[in-house]
Design goal:
The protein is an alpha+beta fold. It has 4 helices and 5 strands; from the N terminus they run H-E-E-E-E-H-E-H-H. The protein has a 5-stranded antiparallel β-sheet. The radius of gyration is 13 Å and the shape is globular.
Length: about 120
Amino acid sequence: MRRAGQMRVSPSFKSFVLDQLDGLGGVTARPMFGGVGLYRNGVFFGIIARDVLYLKVDPITRGDYERAGAAAFKPYLDRPGTMQYYAVPLDVLESAFELTAWAQKAVDAAERGKRSIR
């Protein structure tokens, strides 16, 4: 079984991601199973694990990630199964402007998901 520590995030990568997301506003990071959960105003929209940023997707946004060749988040590398979070393409990650736009779409996807559950 994989241990939570194997999703460990380096402090420098976490800091970089949070700096890149500064334009989104209201972003907080919380420890989560060895990784980091990202929230905006209480809405869970992203995961940092193994120094990779993953953002929430839904049927509206998944295609952007698939066209970019992004991989789905696998909490356990040695087990099947993925989650509705996809790795952010490197060129997006490196542009604070682009990352903010993609992160806003992830927040929107998370909010749509919350509404559909109710």
